[in-house]
Amino acid sequence: MSAHYDLLIRGGVCVLPWGMEQTDVGVRDGRIAALGVPAGATAETTIEAGGLHVLPGLIDPHVHLRDPGDPAIETIPTGTKAAVLGGLATVFDMPNTSPSITNAERLAWKQDYVEGAAWCDVGLYVGGTKTNIAELAELELGRGVCAIKVFAGSSTGDLMVEDDEHLQLVMESGRRRIAYHSEDEYRLQARRPMFRVGDPHIRHMEWRDEECAFLGTRRLMALARRTGRPAHILHVSTAEELDYLKDFRDVATVEVLVNHLTQVAPDCYERLRGFGVMNPPIRGQRHYEASWAAVRDGTVDTIGSDHAPHSRAAKEKPWPECPAGLTGVQTLVPVLLDHVNAGRLSLMRLVDLLCAGPARVYGLVGKGRLAAGYDADFTLVDMQRRRRIEESWIVSPCGWTPFAGMDITGWPVATIVRGTPVMREDEILGSPTGKLAAFK
Asked: Are 396 and 309 in contact (CB under 8 A)?
């Protein structure tokens, strides 16, 4: 009797942990049941993937979906819809919402809300603060929690943990890897009087200079070594940090952003003005080249979008009144596929950075590779498709992207989450069925 599956993906080139191979994939009960399916197998649904590459469901480990917050800018429903349109099967959402996710009550609200509102699977960060240190060891083990997030610089409200005393106390509460925004708040504040409202936008990278980032990372590494608490340094943006972190692989993993791999100062500030302002800032050619070198030599563990939308009106304000943060969850995969076609990284390395890397760094269970027993998450891509990124395609309510007008070669054409197709050819399918991701 021939095998029967819920879903068959036939004829695609699968990016497997051990290489690329044209093979069929069979799915049952939301999980991968077989790689290499008999010719006579049947299925409730069959996707013909000839000419396409079948990737594990891609993961953006760094997004700000702003929920709870202002629904005119972003929500979990709109942000996860943007994610699946962009070829992502899972996203990890940051805690600096309004109010912030910093205690058990707010976490419980968000856990319940995600399942029923999200189009893809979601991991949740919990914010570390000076006042919730005693709760962190328990909060980090909550359902769907991917990590504790600490803003060692550049935050508002109660999320700032800028001093060594409290940073060490946070590190001593719990065991799992902590994700850090690493800028030195003391240097930021000391340099602030050097700049005026209305200065050119490029002064953003002068204020938040290389030493601001490098000093923050040096301090965090000293504390991580002292406490033994593993650290994930988010959005590393300087050549100095990337070189320095190679000596801390026992306690540290590294994220870079697609923006720092794609946009370069001064051009980005001249073209984009406030729509190029982010933290840490986009920097010059030397740092761009160092970021790519770190991708190639294995220093980098994950790539994220740091999707952090703001309204057009806010971004059009003069610097530094324009808020920092760029949209990116819908464009992460297309831009990186274009880099693959340009020869800057291989498709295997892209999958490592957007699948295996996040799974390894955060302890993600059942996702991140094409293998029997894993969640049936897939991103199908057409590596030959040419397309221009247009703002009319962006579904986040803010409605803009810093990559508007960029010509892309390579495009996601389908997203499948736990065996359910949720996007094909720019069409959203079905209803939201996203769940909280599992972490160990």
From this structure: yes
Q: 3-state SS of the chain: helix, strand, coil percent to 5?
A: 30, 25, 45
Q: Which residues contact 189 (CB under 8 A, 6 or more apart)?
A: none
Provide the sign of the torsion angle of the four alpha carbons 352, 354, 360, 361, taken in this order.
positive
18-58 pLDDT, tens per residue? 999 999 999 999 999 999 998 889 999 999 999 999 999 99
Q: Where in the chain is the domain with CATH 2.30.40.10?
A: 4-54+374-428
- Mean pLDDT, rounded, for 227-251: 98
What is the pTM for the complete model shown? 0.98
The domain made up of 4-54+374-428 has a fold known as Urease, subunit C; domain 1 (2.30.40)
Q: Which helix (H) or strand (E) holds 231?
A: strand 231-233
- How far, in Å, are 157, 209, 293 from residue 287 at the CA level? 31, 12, 10
Amino acid letter, residue 173: S
Please provide the average confidence, as pLDDT, over all residues in the chain. Answer: 97
What backbone torsions phi and psi does residue 178 show, to the nearest 5 degrees? -100, 135
CATH superfamily, domain 58-362, is: Metal-dependent hydrolases (3.20.20.140)
pLDDT tens digit sequence for 373-406 = 999 999 999 999 999 999 999 999 999 999 999 9
Q: What is the 3-state secondary structure (H, E, C) of 43-69?
A: EEEEEECCCCEEEECEEEEEECCCCCC
